[in-house]
Amino acid sequence: MSKYLPLFPLSIVVFPEEKLNLHVFEPRYKQLVLECVEEGKTFGIPTFIKNGVGLFGTEMEILRIEKKYDNGEMDIRTKGLRIFKILKFDKMAPGRLYAGGEVEFVENKFDEDIITKMKIREKLEKLYETLGLGNLYEELPEDFNSYTIGHQLGLNTEQEYTLLQLLSEQERQEAILQHLQQVMPVLQETERLKERVRLNGHFKNLTPPNF
């Protein structure tokens, strides 16, 4: 089943359930926001990547207009709903300033694997501890999923976009676990390197080996 959505391409990845605050200043997107609010419509944020509008994005609901400025600019609060794939893209929607597109919503499975989830939690604790971000781990909800932590893994935009296209929670969990397994040794070695640099020139209390 397809639907025509107003589109607001951005150089970011937005995940379902994510809360996103936006400052809207371009005339075309001011028009998009006002129409969506007046008509109770949703819009889509496809990821602008590799100098083009990607096929995948997230349908967004406008929660409220937080502030309106004298020049018509706005601060809005939005929330991600579901993932779509663009079937047909219009640089300008018919009779509008903003882009639009015929999209289909993808089937998304939330079939998590509890063992993989436990492994991810352990790796995340080590990651945040190594980075000195223990508060992030403390704020991690018990029922977290791939989307909850998607922006807290140190992924670049391309990697987040790949995650967005994985349509099974188990697939997303495996990809996240693999990423964490790869990045942790690098981070730990970096920390050891920093420690060696800090100690250089200092008086060292070293225990001589027995031989």
The rounded Rg comes to 22 Å
User: Based on the structure given, which CATH architecture of the largest domain is correct?
Assistant: Roll
Query: Structural class from helices and strands?
Result: alpha+beta
Which range best describes the helical content: under 10%, 10-25%, 25-40%, 40-55%, 55-70% or over 70%?
25-40%
CATH homologous superfamily of the largest domain? Answer: LON domain-like
Q: Sketch the topology as an H/E string, one letter per element.
A: EEHEEEEHHHHH
CATH class of the largest domain: Mainly Beta
Oligomerization: single chain
Number of strands: 6
Q: And the CATH topology of the largest domain?
A: Archaeosine Trna-guanine Transglycosylase, Chain: A, domain 4
Overall shape: elongated
Count of alpha/pi helices: 6
Describe the structure in your own words.
The protein is of the alpha+beta class. The protein has six helices and six strands; from the N terminus they run ββαββββααααα. A hairpin with an 8-residue loop joins β5 and β6 (about 100-105). The chain is elongated, with a radius of gyration of 22 Å. The mean pLDDT is about 90. This is Peptidase. InterPro entries: Lon_prtase_N, Lon_prtase_N_sf, PUA-like_sf.
